[in-house]
Specification:
268 residues, 13 helices
Length: 268
């Protein structure tokens, strides 16, 4: 029995080493094996920095908007019973099941030059496809469920007793949310924010479809990796990939901290 347990652990470790650790190590090796100076030379390229800047801008817009939506949706779903509740939850989960490339194509079909709103957008001189608005919409679509899906179970678990007690003491809705609800859901909310941030920074498929991948203008960091690798600028590509891997590592660290705090809270 002990032998089988050790064998399974060894298989799991080997599996993770081949699929996760080895590719991650390869990225860092390829980015740095020619020296740190080469990495910083790549980092100082204008297109590289524009890609980082664009990824940060898209994430900075997406994160608060999807957080507000996620909190509102979670509150409505967890605190109310109404016809179509299951359907609403299924719609929120839709981005999990739809391919990001398909999501990008849907946005093009709506807002592209030949799309449903193409003529109206042209008259109003509003450009969405191959521009920042389209990339933000695509990122918002793929990251939409994370906050709601993390907060809903927490709200259902804590119930309404504390909120009703605060209301009987004269607190208004805003005071109840800030002083009772928000402290109770903070770890679930932070976990959702973390997942949303990680997906927004690393999203490729949907953004690639709507952006046009114009180097220096509509190229996010993941697209920059793909473009430079295709152009045989492998060191630059791996340098950008290392930045993404580093951000993913930070996300895992924060995720672990949040899970420990959540577990600590549950044990109290």
């Amino acid at each position: 029995m002990q032998l089988n347990k050790n064998l399974l652990i060894a298989i799991a470790v080997l599996y993770m080493f081949i699929l996760i650790l080895l590719p991650t190590f390869t990225i860092f090796y390829e980015a740095l094996h020619k020296g740190v100076d080469v990495f910083f030379d790549n980092f100082n390229q204008r297109n590289f920095q524009e890609a980082i800047k664009l990824s940060l801008i898209i994430t900075a817009i997406t994160l608060p908007l999807n957080t507000i939506f996620g909190l509102c949706a979670a509150w409505v779903i967890a605190r109310n019973k109404f016809p179509g509740k299951a359907l609403l939850m299924s719609i929120i989960d839709l981005p999990f099941s739809v391919s990001p490339v398909v999501a990008g194509l849907m946005i093009v079909l709506l807002f592209g030059a030949q799309g449903w709103f193409g003529d109206w957008l042209k008259e109003m001189q509003i450009k969405i496809i191959f521009a920042l608005p389209g990339m933000v919409i695509a990122t918002m679509f793929v990251t939409l469920p994370f906050v709601a899906r993390e907060v809903i179970p927490v709200l259902e678990e804590i119930g309404t007793d504390q909120e009703e007690a605060a209301r009987t003491l004269g607190a208004n809705d805003w005071q109840i949310f800030c002083r009772v609800t928000l402290p109770n859901i903070r770890w679930g909310l932070l976990y959702g924010l973390l997942l949303t941030n990680a997906r927004a920074m690393g999203e490729f498929g949907a953004v690639a479809v709507v952006s046009g991948s114009i180097m220096g203008r509509t190229t996010t960091l993941p697209i920059f990796v793909e473009q430079t690798y295709k152009n045989y600028q492998t060191t630059t590509a791996f340098s950008a990939a290392m930045i993404l891997a580093f951000l993913a590592g930070l996300t895992l660290i924060f995720k672990e901290i949040l899970e420990r705090k959540t577990g600590h809270k549950a044990n109290l």
